[in-house]
Amino acid sequence: MKLFSLAGKTAVVTGACGLLGQNHCQALAEAGAQVVAADLHEESCMQLAGRLGDLHMGLGVDVTDPASLEQARLKILGRYERIDVLVNNAAINDMFENPTLGSKQSMFEHYPIGMWDRSWKVNVSGVFLSSQILGGVMAEQGNGSIINIASTYGIVAPDQSIYRNEEGEQTFYKSPSYPVTKSAVIGFTKFLAAYWGPKGVRVNALSPGGVENGQDEYFKNNYSKKTLLGRMAAPSDYKGAVVFLASDASVYMTGANLVVDGGWTAI
Predict the structure, then answer these.
(1) Residues 189-222: tens digit of each pLDDT
(2) Catalytic residue among 178, 223, 238, 252
(3) Is 238 designated active site?
(4) pLDDT at res. 104
(5) Does 172 reside within a domain?
(6) Position 267 in a domain
(7) What is the pTM of this model?
């Protein structure tokens, strides 16, 4: 079990205040890491770090802004002197607040280029910049683990039928930017694993399935029917996978995509 220990390690989680981000932080802290919870709103990050304990740190960071990441690197190294784990979790997933427009706006034929560009900036460029600026510390150290949070939708296309309600109405479509950007994250993971392998930095992707979070019952039922385990994920279902990829338990694993999706992509 010592292979799974992160005692004495410093782990940075971007998008830390989101549903999965909070669980990633908790998992790493439980494994012994000093966790830096990084997200846009510093006060929320500091509150999260406070709940984890005195060893941890909350930072306001914009992953699309190199200057913000440079400042974060200085603060992290000033306190902990090193970075051992980076979880690139920050991402946006399109929301269509107006239900009367959502089904039309989410269609590929009408999908706004602005939403496409925004997703690329956060989901892909944010991973690139965070890896370059924070992960670069690991390359200088000669060791470290980067975990890029991808998605099952980075592996297979969205099944648009699960977004139809009981009356057969298409409430909205899964828009193109999330699947395409998450596919790019998997490709970037392989590039960086090959590039930094000689530097002792391991780079892997984690592709989670859908997480239950108060969705409509029709959607939860539709989604669950497509998984071999017959349910959506709980937010805590990925804690073990994150610790595994962060720790020496996966010491000979790099350039891989760990799929934890209840069997969604198995058939």
Answers:
(1) 999 999 999 999 999 999 999 999 999 999 999 9
(2) 178
(3) no
(4) 87
(5) yes
(6) no
(7) 0.96
